[in-house]
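Write out this protein's structure.
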Amino acid sequence: MAYLSTPEVDGTNYARLFALAPAAYDGWATLNVAIRSAMDLRRYELVTLAAARRLGSSYCSMAHGSLLRDRFFTADQVRRIAADHHDAGLDPADVAPMDLAERVVTDPRGITDGDVAALRELGLSERDVLDVVLTAAARCFFATVLDALGVEPDASYRADLDPRLLDLLTVGRSAAVA
């Protein structure tokens, strides 16, 4: 972490940062659980990865790329998704929410009724669309806080992720060195 001197606590680099503001972290965690609990976990992770990559958040990309690899896909599939989710063999009902997440973080005012209608045509409900938007918007908060204060992704990602996947998930700061 480059900008703040935080108390020594066990855990992740982001936990050390949020030890300075535990109520803020508790609020984030409550919001995140409320959003995630209403969604299919696989969709949540895909949407979060898309938002994190577009935001340039290596920390969030590595964390959620790891979860996708551990729970839903092989490392090779996650590499393909990270490289280009349009060319990764995903169903259009997976690709479209990822595209929407990218739009939420880059051009939320540019999202049209037609964009939302296209998601409905793929079988997403109004609630599904809201969940995608909530997920991407919440990722904006968390990733911005980490990046603005220089928080590096945990060194453990260097050991946990194969080098090719680590490279694709490094879209901003590199993982810390142990």
